[in-house]
Amino acid sequence: MRLVKLGVCSVNTTVGAHRSNVDRAIGFAEKLAAEQVTVAAFQEQLIGGYPVEDLVQWQGFVERQWSELLRFASATAHLPTVFVVGVTVALEGLRYNCAAVVAGGRIHGLVPKEKLPTYSVFYEGRTLARGYAGMNERHRGVPMGDLLFRFDFGVLAAEVCEDLWSADGPIRRRSYSGAELVVNLSASPYRVGFTQSRLELIATRAADHQCTLVYSNAVGANDGLIFDGGGYVNQNGRYLLEAPRFVEGFSTVTVDLDRSTRQRAENTTWRDDCERWLKHHPRVPIIDVTGFTSRRDGLRYPVPAHRSFFLPPDRPPANPRAEFCEEILDALALGVGDYFEKTGAFKKFGIALSGGRDSLLTLLVVHRYAKRVRPDDPGSLIDAFYMPSRYSSPQTRAAAELIAKELGVHLTIVSIDEAFEREREAALKMLGPGATITPITEQNIQARLRAQRMWNWSNSANGLFVQTGNMSEKAVGYTTVGGDLMGAVAVIANVPKTVVMYLLDYLAETTGYQGIQAVLQKPPGPELAFDQVGEEELMPFPVLDGCFYLFAAEKLLPDEVLAAMRELFPEIPEATMRGYVQKFVRLFVQSIYKWVQSPLSLHIWNLDLERERALQLPVVTRPDWRN
Predict the structure, then answer these.
(1) 3-class secondary structure, 131
(2) Residue 319 to residue 576: CA distance in whole angstroms
(3) DSSP string spanning 535-577?
């Protein structure tokens, strides 16, 4: 047996908070060592935080990371643990995203990231340089490049995030060159349904390369990106550890590295592939680490908790609905909570409640965060406002009052009717004699009055004005620039309307709040005109979301969208569906100018509406190509 204890640690870092990020890491390093961990994996960009974007172009931002890495090495010098830490370094004018191998007070090597993503929410290829096979440099006397590290327990390889996602990544040549333990440092943002892809990928890589793979992911949120944390240890395709997600901390497992060695000897396909590769490629050089001794004498062979190597453990049956909803709610609460805490600019949250679904879900997400940080009085962290006009119904007012009471949130009711009349008259004067105010203008006046009052409250109360709109309505411009589109951070701006309603149904069942039921009893609508119903003015929300997915995510042409929508909704007449598709495409393209002006939003899908992130579309465009 060759036992090692492996630890994966997720630290909730803040971009640019070099010292406090390292302080947190040192604290966890002490705890990991106290549990006799042999190798501990922190996350990508641990020291500077992630994503750094163009901050990496500031030399001081990069230089300070090196001094903090040295401080980490010094502070952990007495610990018998190998740490793999994410850091940015500058070499000859180029910036590299590296994994640093630290043990016994020394930085033994730096391994640069090779695969730099420039898609979806990532921009690394724009600012960073790539590592490459055979890279052999030195940074301030420290080896830097395509390296392996031999310790007294075995041979270790380090890599960074996207390197794992390519079949042509460095794990192949490093495993064939002798790496038994591969440590991947990641800052992989949360996306709905993405966990299973991660699990399958890690298992595939570990099985393909007959190695023990340690994966550690960042946790927390910076700007609109949410990192779900968690970590995994997979040995030769078999999972040995799955760490909790959405929480800062670490998990450990003891592994027998001889098992990987034995399986390499038994797997003739792997041996043949390895021999063939070595005939035509040089081995990755191995650094022999001296002057450091791990502490493994107290480790015991890992046995199943249910005391059987053949029988599966008892697990409660999975509840896909609960998993789906709880994961999204946890992600959004983490995202808005970290934005609130890390900016350091706000004392409380402010939410304009309409008595409708979107503002209700936003309130529940913020309250979920508040319950974590103020469990005895979460409502004290939130101010809610109901600002009725002549078009507001008694039902929505009653629903807003009821949910605020159930959550213990202070609700202030301030009518906008008087101000609405003043603004209406002012608009008429500006238009000149004989002009009339359009119905849409009357609606927008109300929305803008509410936003203006929320900004006034925010300025005086140091409050975080939370925007409450959903992704579906934002996509087709069913929102008001300067009105309900406004806020400091948009919590559900990347949550489709059908998902909003699904989450509220789930929360109604699991929380028992009568205020949710009160909101759900009335058809969704903005109440900016009498008897206004959103689906009557747009289209059924399941249809809207279907069009949105097919056109914006799958990039289908309108006729292709129509063909798919016929299959999705065969009960809708052909002419009606054609009208829906044409209307959606027209509204979507016309509304880009609106949603590029919206506030920073939290990202939970591969498809998000934020121009600097997932879907980058020109504002000025013509429809010729769609015909």
Answers:
(1) coil
(2) 37
(3) HHHS--HHHHHHHHIIIIIS---HHHHHHHHHHH-TTS-HHHH
Query: CA-CA distance, 278 to 6, in Å (whole number)?
Result: 29
Query: What's the domain count of the chain?
Result: 2
Q: Which helix (H) or strand (E) holds 253?
A: strand 249-256
pLDDT tens-digit map of 192-221: 999 999 999 999 999 999 999 999 999 999
Question: Which alpha helices (H) appear in 300-393, and where do they start and end?
Answer: 320-343, 357-373
pTM of the model: 0.95
Task: Average the pLDDT over 396-411 and give the result.
Answer: 97
Query: What does the alpha-carbon distance between residue 413 and residue 386 come to, in Å, rounded to a whole number?
Result: 5
Q: According to the model, what pLDDT value does residue 462 have?
A: 97
For 411, the token pair is 């609700």
Shared-domain flag, residues 264 and 395: no
Burial string for 134-156 (b: 16+ CB within 10 Å, else e) reads eeeeebeebbbbbbbbbbebbbb
Q: Which of 578, 531, 544 is nearest to 558 (CA)?
A: 578
Spatial neighbors of 18 by CB under 8 A, at least 6 apart, are 47, 48, 64, 65, 68
CA distance 430 to 435: 9
Q: 480, 506, 532: which is the final residue of a domain?
A: 532
The structure tokens listed for 92 are 């000859």
What pLDDT, in 10s, does the model give residues 303-333? 999 999 999 888 889 899 999 999 999 999 9
Percent of all residues in the chain with a pLDDT value above 70, rounded to a whole number: 100
What is the rounded CA–CA span in Å between residue 540 and residue 471? 15
Written as one letter, the residue type at 21 is N
Structure tokens at 535: 């689906």
Residues 70, 107: contact at Cβ < 8 Å?
Answer: yes
What is the residue range of 505's domain?
Answer: 320-532
Tell me which residue has tokens 């206004």: 532
Confidence band for 244, pLDDT divided at 50, 70 and 90: very high
Q: In the structure encoding, which two tokens stand for residue 111, read together?
A: 């391994």
User: 332 and 194 in one domain?
Assistant: no
| 115/230 same-domain check | yes
